[in-house]
Amino acid sequence: MASVGPSAASTQPALPSGPAVFKTIPYAFILPEILCGTWVWILVAATSVSLPLLQGWVMYVSLTSCLISLLLLLSYILGFHRNSENWKVLDSLYHGTTAILYMSAAVLQANATINSEFGVNAPLNYQLNSAASFFAFLTTFLYILHAFSIYYQ
């Protein structure tokens, strides 16, 4: 007689929904990702853009990832995932891809910061670009943490 053990689905942790999203690692990283990403595009928008191609990419990545992360957070809070394993794969792929894109944006923002050290309104633009670079690298780190923690969960 074969013994009946726990199925593979029952050994996997359940995906959180509702307020439990804010208490569960890696899903608790979504709100700080949104907040830090929002700071990136606010700070870049506050500067006088001297390199539109570089900072345009930073704005695109930060704004797009902020909006998609907000939609992902809302879908977790409202329970659209219905505890499907596909959501973990989607979440891991999204955060991994976004971490790579955010790393490129953070490096470009750091380059824009270096280039804004001299010029019109240099002290103010340099401070705003420095803060945007800091938050871009911090957001990149949060996306990396989220991607790896969901992958190893």
UniProtKB/TrEMBL annotation:
Organism classification, top ranks?
Eukaryota, Metazoa, Chordata, Craniata, Vertebrata
PROSITE patterns, A to Z: MARVEL
Q: What is this protein called?
A: MALL protein
Membrane-crossing residues? Answer: 27-51, 57-80, 92-112, 132-152
Q: What are the record keywords, sorted?
A: Membrane, Transmembrane, Transmembrane helix
Report the main location listed first in the record. membrane
GO terms for biological process? Answer: myelination
Looking up InterPro entries in the UniProt record yields: MAL (IPR013295), Marvel (IPR008253), MARVEL-CKLF_proteins (IPR050578)
Q: Which source organism does the UniProt entry give? A: Peucedramus taeniatus
